[in-house]
């Protein structure tokens, strides 16, 4: 039996708010309340829920950028939770993260070629120039784009650069945290198609987080629905969308704008034309 790419067991994360009284202890916020799930190698797994439900906290724990209060995260059979940064070299090679805000995640003082090469430099990998050109082409940008700075690109192009940087060290797992929520609707369709194509071509495992169920439906095979720090429903995406069992999922589906209409209206020229 194939081992899971990601295994999460009873994951909890608590934060203490600043004290408001000398007589009372600092209040505790439960961001995650015993979350458990597995993601199979090569699977496209979606995590969906409203803002504040714990999605981004969960992604930080998966990426080893934060530590849980209790519970365990394993990536490709190796425990991540509880390890200091100096022992997470294996994780930085195998798992990469694409953030929501491409401008906020790209250093405005660096040329694009140096931004994409950052993970390669950190890991001491050779042939960086050739790899950067290959990645720019893979995300639909020219090799000459590497000489420019982030502010010289549109939002969609900046997210393409972020994707190229994430793919630079040849990870096997890609985490995407709301990667299209800051983009125009027509550009969302292009970036979603790019992510889907690259995940398929490279055989990646994808964990895709969004507050929009219809975006997850376009990208993911299986979905987990989060509410108030808990997974309330999980299953094949089509099944969850067509026959939601939990009242929260039912409400979320009724309230969600339809990305399907946007994708249908984008047309072949928008989806396959010049990158935005």
From TrEMBL:
Keywords: ATP-binding, Nucleotide-binding, Transport. Residues 6-253 form the ABC transporter domain. GO terms for molecular function: ATP binding. The keyword Transport applies. It comes from the Bacteria. Transmembrane segments: none annotated. Pfam families: ABC_tran, oligo_HPY. Belongs to the ABC transporter superfamily. This is ATP-binding cassette domain-containing protein. It comes from Terrabacter terrigena.
């Amino acid at each position: 039996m194939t081992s899971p790419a990601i295994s999460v067991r009873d994951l909890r994360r608590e934060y203490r708010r600043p004290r408001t009284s000398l007589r009372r202890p600092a209040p505790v916020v439960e961001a995650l309340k015993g979350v458990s799930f597995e993601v199979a190698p090569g699977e496209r797994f979606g995590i969906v829920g409203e803002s504040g439900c714990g999605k981004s906290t969960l992604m930080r724990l998966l990426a080893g950028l934060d530590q849980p209060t209790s519970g365990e995260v394993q990536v490709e059979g190796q425990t991540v939770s509880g390890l200091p940064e100096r022992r997470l070299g294996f994780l930085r090679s195998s798992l990469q993260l694409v953030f929501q805000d491409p401008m906020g995640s790209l250093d405005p003082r660096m040329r694009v070629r140096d931004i994409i090469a950052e993970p390669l430099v950190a890991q001491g990998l050779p042939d960086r120039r050739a790899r950067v050109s290959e990645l720019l082409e893979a995300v639909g940008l020219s090799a000459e784009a590497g000489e420019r700075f982030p502010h010289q690109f549109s939002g969609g192009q900046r997210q393409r650069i972020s994707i190229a940087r994430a793919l630079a060290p040849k990870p096997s797992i890609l985490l995407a945290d709301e990667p299209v929520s800051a983009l125009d609707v027509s550009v969302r369709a292009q970036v979603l198609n790019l992510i889907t194509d690259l995940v398929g071509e490279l055989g990646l495992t994808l964990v895709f987080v969004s507050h929009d169920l219809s975006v997850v439906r376009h990208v993911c095979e299986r979905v987990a629905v989060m509410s108030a720090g808990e997974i309330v429903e999980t299953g094949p995406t089509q099944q969850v969308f067509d026959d939601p069992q939990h009242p929260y999922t039912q409400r979320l589906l009724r309230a969600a704008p339809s990305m399907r209409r946007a994708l249908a209206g984008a047309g072949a020229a928008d989806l396959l034309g010049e990158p935005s």
